[in-house]
Amino acid sequence: MTTDVVTAASAPRVPVRGGGQFPVHRIYCVGRNFADHAREMGATAPASKAERGTPVFFMKPADAVVVDGAVSYPPGTHDLHHEVELVVALGRDAPAGELPVDAAQALVFGYGVGLDLTRRDLQAAAKAKGLPWDVAKGFDQSAPLSPLVAAADVGALAPRMLSLDVNGERRQQSTLDQLIWDVPEILHELSKLYALRAGDLVFMGTPAGVAALQPGDACVARLDDVLELRCHIRAPAA
Questions:
Q1: Could you give the CA distance from residue 235 to residue 165 in angstroms, rounded to a whole number?
Q2: Fewer CB within 10 Å: N-end or C-end of the chain?
Q3: Is 5 a domain residue?
Q4: What is the distance between the terminal CA atoms of the chain, rounded to a whole angstrom?
């Protein structure tokens, strides 16, 4: 019998509508996956599929997930930004090798709506120096997430509206047909770099309208009337 030499936290779990919990393995994130957001960040948006190049990926730690909506304003920043995103939850391991696009949807267990919280000032400083910007994205409580809903209960994604209200004011909004890379394409591209596993989450990118959050702000993220995330930005933790 193997005995652990330290006591460590168990895998984070996300509630599933209808019962049960989803154990989180990894969190993958897609950058610049809406053309309007790419432009607002100073990047050139592709004019056609042929000009897309390759997706931009980064990661967050699994325990960055927040399921109770309570987010403490993080340390080290004075410019915390919201980015509302569709979140894809994988329910099966990918087979070995490159995952074909037409086989990728079979891996999807369900969907959520989440926030990719970003320490924008740290990201900008790292970009200016040509350095990695992991600390801007992969910090504690940087991935608030709604309960998950089975893929069959969501149906076709393209016509669905993704939105974020902060203190009752609409900040971000877009239909999912505006994704530069759709879900099967992203899973295909990820499979070239990583072994995808059941328990993985994929934050699919954000539309334009990202902006700062302050302690006391109340956020409501939605995917039409199917998914909802409510969260509150608290004062920095003592």
A1: 20
A2: N
A3: no
A4: 40
Q: Name the residue range of residue 29's domain.
A: 13-234
CATH number at residue 67: 3.90.850.10
CB of 73 within 8 A of CB of 80?
A: yes
Residue-wise pLDDT tens digits, 95-124: 988 999 999 999 999 999 999 999 999 999
- DSSP letter for each residue of the chain: ----SS--PPPPEEEBTTS-EEE---EEEEES-BHHHHHHTTPPPPSSGGG----EEEEE-GGGEESSSEEEPPTT-S-EE--EEEEEEE-SPPPSSPPPHHHHGGGEEEEEEEE--EEHHHHHHHHHTT---HHHHSSTT-EEBPPBEEHHHH--STTPEEEEEETTEEEEEEEGGGBSS-HHHHHHHHHTTS---TT-EEE----S---B--TT-EEEEEETTTEEEEEEEEPPP-
Over range 124-140, report the average pLDDT. Answer: 96
Q: What pLDDT is stored for residue 44 in this prediction?
A: 72
User: Is 204 part of any domain?
Assistant: yes
Please name the amino acid found at residue 51. E
Instruction: Mention every residue, 6+ apart, whose C-beta is less than 8 A from residue 217.
Output: 166, 167, 232, 233
Number of domains in the chain: 1
Nearest of 223, 217, 234 to residue 84 by alpha carbon: 223
Report the alpha-carbon distance of residue 118 to residue 81 in Å, rounded.
5
**Residue 3 falls inside a structural domain:** no
Q: 58 pLDDT band (50/70/90 cuts)?
A: very high
